[in-house]
Design a protein that fits this description.
This protein is an alpha+beta fold and 242 residues long. It contains six helices and nine strands. Strands 2, 3, 6, 7 and 8 form a five-stranded antiparallel β-sheet that branches. It has a two-stranded antiparallel sheet with strand order 1-4. It has a two-stranded antiparallel sheet with strand order 5-9. The protein starts with 31 loop residues before the first strand and ends with a strand. The relative contact order is 0.24.
């Protein structure tokens, strides 16, 4: 049995060819990656250059949820996404939004307003214009934040979050939920198991494939997810598109 805090892996039967972690990473200590460093991302610009109309911290004090998509899995499973920029350009991870808890009841259908420099920064984790607009209208437009402040929150939180390298190698793995969660907790001090909500979809052979990781925050740090899907089961596939 592998140690409980080690990311366990075995060949993923729904993808060819699967790659074992032991062939590319040390068996016990895996190198983490910041969410920022997805495959298509270059070195980040200083987001502090962006103007703000409301204070922005690494994590909002009110309950919030950062939604991270497993891009290769969704691109291969949903044909409607095939022409999205993150699919065409081979992104490993993208952010689909930050739910600040304000909802969209104000019916504000405004477009997010970002300068070219702001857009260049945000594009690295949210490259699709439709996704950015939907995130703003669903989660940001009814909040006290301007669109500039809202997207700065997203970039700040993404730049501080550490993720297992398996999510960024371009290869596919079958992992246990326990080992994945333990790895996330070890990489992110202060995070609890209840701070994570893992969402999966069934693949062609009915295997669970990880499609989204939701990270919950509160009080300026990690918090407890109040609404969870948590449908991945004990084992699931991380699909790298290969």
């Amino acid at each position: 049995m592998p140690p409980p805090d080690t990311m366990a892996s075995k060949p993923a039967t729904s993808v060819t060819p699967p790659v074992l972690l032991s062939k590319i990473l040390p068996a016990r200590i895996l190198s983490p990656i910041p969410l920022w460093s997805s495959t298509a991302c270059a070195a980040p610009l200083l987001f502090a250059l962006l103007p703000l109309s409301a204070p922005a911290h690494a994590a909002p004090s009110s309950p919030s949820v950062l939604m991270i998509e497993m891009t290769p899995a969704l691109c291969s499973m949903q044909s409607s996404r095939s022409r999205m920029r993150q699919c065409l350009e081979g992104y490993s991870l993208t952010v689909s939004g930050l739910d600040l808890g304000y909802g969209s009841s104000c019916n504000n259908r405004s477009e997010p307003r970002l300068t070219p420099l702001q857009l260049k920064v945000v594009n690295r984790i949210m490259p699709d214009n439709t996704v950015r607009t939907q995130a703003w209208q669903r989660y940001g437009a009814c909040s006290p934040y301007s669109s500039s402040s809202y997207f700065r929150q997203i970039v700040n939180m993404a730049s501080e979050l550490e993720l297992p390298r398996e999510l960024n190698t371009g290869n596919s793995y079958t992992v246990t939920k326990t080992s994945f969660v333990n790895q996330m907790l070890r990489l992110n001090p202060g995070m609890r198991a209840s701070s994570l909500d893992l969402i999966c979809k069934d693949g062609n052979r009915r295997q669970s494939i990880l499609t989204q990781v939701r990270v919950c925050y509160e009080g300026g740090g990690f918090g407890q997810c109040r609404t969870v899907v948590d449908n991945c089961g004990n084992n699931f596939i991380i699909s790298g598109g290969k």
